[in-house]
């Protein structure tokens, strides 16, 4: 095993660079993350408009982060699955379905949170 000659700080900076590269790839290649980003912008605007509390902001930001992060993991799983087995395969399809299901669960949770936060403010 070889050791990196770069310092801990240099390695962390490189890691951040790779993470940013990954986020850019995600936003350029996935329509679903673009839709989620638009929704995130809309609920952020709603948060300012309805002057939501600090606690509501914390929960809203956490849900936005959760949904978008899970979408990134789902996309990574899809890329790995397609790389390993490019042609249609029932096992790979099941893996992809489960990963998409995780995004669905996170998204439903985010919708429930949005209803809890905004329903009383709108009605």
Automatic annotation (TrEMBL):
Annotated substrate binding sites: 71
CDD domains: UDPK_IM_like
Chain residues that bind ATP: 30, 78, 87-89, 96-97
A molecular function (GO) term: kinase activity
Cofactor binding description: Mn(2+), Zn(2+), Cd(2+) and Co(2+) support activity to lesser extents.
Domain of life of the source: Bacteria
Protein topology in the membrane: Multi-pass membrane protein
Gene Ontology BP, a term: phospholipid biosynthetic process
Pfam families: DAGK_prokar
InterPro entries reported in the protein's UniProt record: DAGK, DAGK_sf, UDPK
Protease recorded as keyword: no
Membrane-spanning intervals of the chain: 31-51, 98-119
Subcellular locations according to the entry: Cell membrane
Cofactor(s) needed: Mg(2+)
Coiled coil: none
Keywords: ATP-binding, Cell membrane, Kinase, Lipid biosynthesis, Lipid metabolism, Magnesium, Membrane, Metal-binding, Nucleotide-binding, Phospholipid biosynthesis, Phospholipid metabolism, Transferase, Transmembrane, Transmembrane helix
Main subcellular location of this protein, as a coarse class: membrane
Record GO cellular component, one term: plasma membrane
Binding-site residues, a divalent metal cation: 30, 78
Protein family per UniProt: Belongs to the bacterial diacylglycerol kinase family.
Protein name: Diacylglycerol kinase
Species: Aquaticitalea lipolytica
């Amino acid at each position: 095993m070889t050791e990196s000659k770069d310092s801990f700080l240099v390695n962390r900076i490189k890691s951040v660079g790779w993470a940013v590269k990954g986020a850019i790839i995600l936003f350029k290649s996935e329509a679903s993350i673009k839709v989620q980003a638009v929704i995130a912008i809309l609920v952020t605007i709603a948060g300012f408009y309805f002057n939501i509390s600090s606690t509501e902001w914390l929960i809203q930001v956490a849900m936005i982060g959760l949904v978008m992060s899970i979408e990134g993991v789902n996309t990574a799983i899809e890329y790995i699955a397609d790389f390993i087995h490019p042609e249609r395969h029932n096992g790979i399809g099941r893996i992809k379905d489960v990963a998409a299901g995780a995004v669905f669960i996170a998204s439903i949770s985010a919708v429930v949170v949005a209803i809890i936060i905004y329903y009383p403010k709108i009605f």
